[in-house]
Amino acid sequence: MHGRPRQKAGPPDPERVKAAQKKAALFGQLSAEVLERRAAKRYDAESLALAGKLLELHPEVYTVWNYRREALQPVLDAGGEAAVAAVAGELALTERALHKNPKSYATWHHRRWAVAKGFCSLERELQLVGQLLEADERNFHGWGYRRFIVQLMGTPAARELEYAEHKINQNFSNYSAWHSRTALLPELHGGGGDGGEDAGAAAALSSALAAARLGAEASAAAAGTATAPAAGDAGHPAEQPSQQQPSQQQAEAQPAAQPRRPPPAGASSATAAVPKEALDEEYELVKQAFFTEPEDQSGWFYHRWLLGCSLAHWERARGTTEEAAERAALLAVLAREEQTCQELLEVEPDAKWPLLTLTRLRELERQVLRSSSSGGGKSSGSGAGASGSEAGSSGAGASGSEAGSSGAGASGSEAGSSGAGAGVGDGGSSAGGGAGLAAEIAGGYARLIELDSLRRGYYEDARDGRAHVVAKPSAAAAAQ
Fold first, then answer.
1. Cβ contacts of residue 114 below 8 Å, gap of 6+?
2. Does residue 77 sit in the same domain as residue 160?
C-alpha cells in the first residue's frame, strides 16, 4: 500500500522463524496435494476447497487459479443457478485473496474471468473497486479493473473523466488517475482510446520511430541532403505492393498540397482525435499540479502525453493545405507551455523537473525549426510532429522512466516556446536563433548536473548527443 512507512528489520525472532518454517512445510504439503489432484483431473468439491485454501495463503500460484477455471468451466457453460453460485464463490475467494495481496496479478485476472461470464452484479463490482481505490488510490490493478467494469456497463467516458478528475483533485500525485485520462479522452472524442496496454505500446513504438526520423532529418539538413521517411514510421506504415497503392513515382508526382489519406487507426490517430480546445483544458489542469508540487513526476508524465496530442494535429496536417495553420497553432501552445516552466523556475529555481523539461523543449524547438526550414512540407511536419509528440517515449529509453517522461513531455510541449515566434513562417529566422538555443540547452544541462549529480553521466551524454533525448537533439548541433 502507498503511504505506509517501511518497518526497519531487526534481528530475527527465533520463535517467528520456527513458526515460518512450520508454515512453509505445511504449505509445501498442501501445494503438492492440490497439484496432484489437478494432474488427476479431480474436480470435486473437496479438491476445490483445498485449492481455495492454498490460494488464500498464497494468491500468486496461478496454476491453481487455472485449475479452478478448468473445474468450473462446464458448470458455467451449463448456466442456471449452479453457474450463479459458482461465480459468487469465485468472487468471494478472490476478495479474500486480494485482502492478502491487493496487487496480485493472478487474482485480478481470475476475477475478470469470473465477472466476464455474466452471472454477477456489475454495480456491486463498481462499488467494491471504488472502496479499494479509496483505500489505495494508486493501485493500478484497481484502476484497470474499474476500466474493465465500466466498459462492460457501457458507462460514458465523460462520467469516468469526472471520476478521474475527482481522484486527481484529492491527490495530484495519483499517476493512475492521470493515466486513465489518456485512455478516456481519445475514447470520448472518437479516437479509439480504449486500446489499453496495446495502445500504449503502439504509441511508444510510434514515437520512437518518429523521433529517430526527426533526428535523421536534422542530420541530413545540416549536411545539405534530403531524408525520406523511414519505412514503418509513425503515420507512414511500410508500403506493401498492391493494386490499390500508387507507385513511388506516382506518389512523388502528386501535388504537395493534395490532402492525404488519414493515418491508420492507432496511437497517432487516437491522440490527434482530442480537440485542441479539450487539450487546453487539460494543460490547465496539469498546470495546477505543477504549481502544487513541481517535483512530483505524475503530472509531468501526463504533460508529455498532452504534448503528443498537440503535435499529432500537426503530424496529421503535414503535406496538406492546413499544415501552416497547424504549425502556428502548435507553436502557440509550445510558447504558452514554456512560459509555465519559466514561471515554475522563478518560484522553485532548484526544481529539477521544470528545468529538465525546459532544456528538452528547447532541444525539440531547435530541431523543429531546423526541420521546418530545411525539410519543407512533408518532412518538416512529419518529423517534428510525430517526434515531438512522443518525444518522451523515445527519450525514456535512453534516460530512464524519469528523464524520458517528464522531460520529453514537457520538453516537447515547450520546445517551441523560446523560438516559436521566430520560426512560424520564416525558415531563415530559425537558423539565427540556433546559437542562442544551443547555449541555453548547454546551460540547462550544466545546471541539471549541479542539481542531480547522480545522473551526471546521463546529462553529459544528452548534452553531447550520445543519448537520444528528444529525437537525437545533438544531431543538428554537431554539424554546425
1. 87, 90, 91, 94, 120
2. no
